[in-house]
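User: Okay, second chain of the day. Same drill as before: sequence in, structure tokens out.
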Amino acid sequence: MAVVTVADVAVGPTVGLLPLMATGPAFAGLAGGPRRTAVIGVLALSLCLALGWYDRLFPGRRGTTALVSVAAVTAAGLLAATMRRRREAELASVRSIAEVAQRVLLRPVPRTAGELSVAVSYTAAVAEAHIGGDLYEVVTSPGGIRVIVGDVQGKGLDAVETAADVLGAFREAAHDELDLAGVSSRLERTMNRTLSGERFVTAVIAEIRKDRTVALLNYGHPSPLFLAAAGTPRFLTPRQPAPPLGLGFPGTERPETLLAAFHPGDQLLLYTDGVSEARDGRGEFYPLASRLHLLRADSPERALEALHSDIAAHVGGPLGDDAAMLLLRYRP
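Assistant: Same drill. Structure tokens below.
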């Protein structure tokens, strides 16, 4: 508005710059609140009126048209700012409820489970994004340490509700079932019964057994990363991929049980696609396989902190999707 004022004084009334005063309240309505829009609108009207008298456009059609234009844009800006502020408040309320529900669902995992040290890292997406459905749990059972890391398709309260169904079914099955196959069967039945439409859940279920082996069942989830105390790290990828939970139907292949030795000093990293699909400004995925040295920290917590910081540096800002990581370290 200052530029319009100086320009109008400099060139005079022949160019007709007064209607441009409406740009002030227009931009204020897009970016500011109702109060700020109103203040700028009043200032724009005052400047328009003053310049109109200075240019001797009052009384006259040109001056009146310019004044009415600024007043109309100010009113529209006030309406837009008010509606936007109301939507922001509603979104903040829904997000707050979802975050509380998610914190209740994702209970703190134990720092130790049997001979394992356990650490978890969860990062929510950027503030403007909806709450996602990442989930994790660690349960100590007579059959061994049973773990799940999963990701619900979709976002918002529906995703949180589905995550609650998955975690509830897993916690119950992990305590009751004698083996990992029984856990997965109950989880499949529950999800096939509760999920509808195109909603599904990718997940990895793991069981760390007393004979120093780990068994894995993968339902369309990113492959866990195994880091031996001495040896080459590798992704534990099944030969035959299985569909996510909720997309199974009669005749669908069940996931194969993948077994690996798990000895003192070894580590197993389970994560969601918010980690493996984190992109930098050029669209390059996060190179997880080349960052494994970060997991050699003296504690699992520090290892995940280092890895999380590296992911954030790769992205160059807040993550665009929820990212969960769970690290199991067999204590030497």
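The chain is about 40% helix and 20% strand.

User: Thanks, on to the next one.
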